[in-house]
Design brief:
Bound molecules: NADP nicotinamide-adenine-dinucleotide phosphate
Keywords: Oxidoreductase
Number of helices: 10
CATH architecture of the largest domain: 3-Layer(aba) Sandwich
Helix content: 25-40%
CATH superfamily of the largest domain: NAD(P)-binding Rossmann-like Domain
CATH topology of the largest domain: Rossmann fold
Structural class: alpha/beta
Mean pLDDT: 83
Number of strands: 15
GO molecular function: acyltransferase activity, transferring groups other than amino-acyl groups; oxidoreductase activity
Oligomer: single chain
Protein name: N-acetyltransferase domain-containing protein
Organism: Actinocatenispora rupis
Radius of gyration: 24 Å
Number of domains: 2
Shape: globular
Strand order of the largest sheet: 8-9-10-11-12-13-15-14
GO cellular component, one term: membrane
Low-confidence stretches: 229-293
């Protein structure tokens, strides 16, 4: 979602994070920036148009939706923290106040502006949440509950607004150096940093922004929470009989005419087309890959063990869900089968003791997937990175691992021409366009290849 040219409304724009967000939207070329303020006389950054807005006042919320009918990006930033425990509080007054602003007020804004965003082409809705959505500090238990509720609400709103094309972004941060965290002595993020990450995430169409390492760790801890939840599929893939050639073929064009599938691609990258599995492990496969440091993450890539296939599937699911593509049971079962296929080459990236990335290569075939196995070709059908680990070159590491294990074979993949981030990743990983293109579902799909390095 582009900021330049957008019409943005930031709630709570008179101070703290909201003020910096509003100023940065002006600096990044927004066509108009409305600043929601409870006090109409409040001072605002240059270029920000004041709008009277207490988000707990239904009349003011409706009036703002009328006045700001040209909004394409709504940033729900306004929030309160009362530093109140749950059981130790004298009554529910403060807990209610936090729920009123952080949950009900934010929800009221989402509801009022959903039709405005729809009218203006979908746009984006950004909810400023917190690390406290996942981590409850007992000294501020009722705030955490309100931010957890706002997180759950954000996910629901994302699903509800998907059909109208609205990008819904959840921003989570640890302490930020504003009035709200005035008494805090531990490390705080600068509001400038959080605002910049938020707007960068928005520009990159991310559904989640994790502003700092601690927040990323909290998110992972939630993801790894062992509380059992009903799942539509078994956690660990059970190897199933190999599909016969053609069963899973998806590359066009063939006599049977299966269209290219864009579903197995990573959010920031490939719209890769699947290739049917066939027999034979790659020659020259290495036994182990060296550990590699990527930014502030030490990631190791390796061929996935059977025990890691369940975690690889979870990464695939999380990456798909993060881009709003919740896979159905049939698709999950198909990917589980593909990962467990003995002919395939599943690769994982492991960081912080967990699988954070996965890739799958399958034996390449002639006739765009329908013909016999080509001995010198591997087809890369999936590359996915845990959303919390994006931007750390893990995609490149995974593709390097596949290339190393593919011995002297060429690697091929298909990717959507419009996916610039994917193009960047593949360029960095040594893939180049071959000039072959396909049209699928109104999208142009490019064929890329990485040739083995000559020794
Ligand atoms: N600071 C942190 O450590 C931290 C960490 C993670 C997440 N966050 C979240 O980041 C967001 C911004 O917080 P901040 O740190 O910038 O806090 P802040 O400095 O206390 O500013 C809060 C802003 O929200 C506005 N506001 C409060 N109640 C409102 C209401 N009912 N209607 C409209 N506006 C209202 C305030 O307006 P007035 O000036 O009129 O009071 C102020 O502009 C919040 O959602 C907060 O929960 C903060």
């Amino acid at each position: 979602m582009r900021i330049d040219g957008a019409v943005v409304l930031v709630t709570g724009a008179n101070r703290g994070l909201g003020r910096v967000l509003a100023r940065m939207c002006v600096e990044r070329g927004a066509a108009r920036v409305y600043g929601g303020v409870r006090d109409p006389g409040a001072d605002l950054p240059a270029g920000v148009v004041p709008v009277r807005l207490d988000i707990t006042d239904p009349a003011q919320v409706s009036a703002a939706a009328e006045t700001c009918g040209d909004v394409t990006v709504l940033v729900n930033n306004a929030g309160v923290l009362t530093n109140t425990p749950l059981v130790g509080a004298p009554d529910l007054t403060r807990a209610r106040a936090e729920m009123d602003v952080n949950y009900f007020g934010t929800l009221a804004m989402c509801r009022a502006f959903a039709p405005v965003l729809a009218r203006n082409g979908g746009g984006a809705l950004v909810n400023i949440l917190s690390i406290a959505s996942w981590f409850t500090n007992p000294a501020m238990g009722s705030y955490s509950a309100s931010k957890a509720a706002a997180w759950a609400m954000t996910k629901g709103v994302r699903d509800e607004l998907r059909p109208q094309g609205t990008l819904v972004v959840a921003v989570h941060s640890g302490y930020i150096d504003t009035d709200m965290a005035r008494g805090v002595t531990s490390t705080k993020n600068s509001p400038e940093d959080v605002a910049a990450r938020t707007l960068d995430g928005l520009a990159a169409d991310r559904t989640e922004v994790l502003a700092d390492d601690r927040t990323q760790r909290a998110k992972r801890a939630v993801a790894a929470d062992p509380v059992p939840e009903p799942r539509p599929v078994a956690e660990t893939p059970v190897p199933e009989p190999r599909p016969v050639a053609g069963d899973t073929a998806s590359e066009p064009p063939t006599a049977t005419g299966n269209p290219p599938a864009a579903e197995d691609a990573a959010p920031e990258m490939p719209t890769a087309i699947r290739n049917p599995p066939a027999g034979g492990n790659p020659p020259g496969a290495r036994d182990a890959a060296p550990g590699t440091r990527t930014g502030d993450v030490a990631a190791e890539t390796r061929r996935a063990t059977d025990a890691e296939l369940g975690a690889a599937l979870r990464v695939w699911r999380a990456a798909n869900e993060a881009r709003g593509k919740v896979p159905d049971a049939e698709r999950i079962a198909r990917v589980r089968r593909k990962l467990a296929d003995p002919a395939a080459l599943p690769v994982v990236a492991v960081a912080d003791g967990a699988v954070v990335g996965m890739a799958l290569a399958e034996p390449g075939r002639a006739d765009d997937g329908a013909g016999p196995v080509l001995p010198d070709l591997w087809h890369v059908s999936m590359v996915f990175v845990d959303p919390a680990y994006r931007g750390r070159r893990i995609g490149v590491l995974l593709l390097d691992e596949v290339a190393a294990r593919a011995g002297g074979r060429r690697l091929q993949l298909w990717t959507g021409a419009g996916n610039e981030r994917a193009q960047r990743l593949y360029r960095r990983a040594g893939f180049t366009p071959t000039g072959r293109v396909r049209e699928h579902g109104g999208e142009t799909i490019l064929h890329l290849e990485r040739r083995p390095k000559r020794s």
